[in-house]
Amino acid sequence: MPALDSTTPITPELIVAHGITPEEYQRIKDILGHEPNITELGMFSVMWSEHCSYKNSKPILKLFSKMNAALPHQENLLVKPGQENAGIVDIGDGYAVCFKIESHNHPSAIEPFQGAATGVGGILRDIFTMGARPILLMNSLRFGDLAQPVSQRLFRGVVAGIAHYGNCMGIPTVGGDIYFDGSYEGNPLVNAMALGIIKKDEIVRGAAHGIGNPVYYVGATTGRDGLGGAAFASKELSEQSHEDRPAVQVGDPFMEKLLMEACLELLKTDALVGMQDMGAAGLTCAGCETASRASTGVEIDLARVPRRETGMIPYEILLSESQERMLVIVKKGKEKEVEAIFEKWDLHAVKIGEVTPGNKYRVLDAGKLAAEIPAKALADEGPVYTREEEKPAYLEKAQQLDLRSIYEPKDFNLTLKRLLSHPSIASKAWVWQQYDHMVRTDTVFYPGHDAALIRIKGTQKGIAVATDCNSLYVYLDPFEGGKIAVAEAARNVVCSGAKPIGVTNCLNFGNPMKPEIFWQFHQAVAGMIESCTALETPVTGGNVSFYNESPQGAIYPTPTIGMVGLLDNIEKRVPSAFQNEGDIVFLAGETFNELGGSHYLMLEHGLKQGLPPRLDLKREGSLQQFILAAADTRKLASCHDLSEGGLAVALAECCIKSEEGLGATITDLEGIRKSQKGLRDDALYFGESQSRAIISVKPEHCKDVRNLAQKQGTTLFEIGKVGGDTLILEDRVRLLVWDAANLFDRTIPNVMERK
Amino acid sequence: MKAAVIVFPGSNCDTDCFHALRDVVKVPVEYVWHKSQDLPKVDLVVIPGGFSYGDYLRTGAIARFSPVMESVIKHANDGRAVIGICNGFQILLESGLLPGAMLRNKTLEFICKHTWIRTEENLTIFTGQMEPGETLCVPIAHGEGNYYCDDDTLKSLHDNSQVVFRYSSEEGKLGEEFNPNGSRDHIAGIVNKKKNVLGMMPHPERSSEDILGSSDGRKIFESILTALE
Question: What is the interface pTM, i.e. ipTM, of the complex?
Answer without folding.
Answer: 0.97
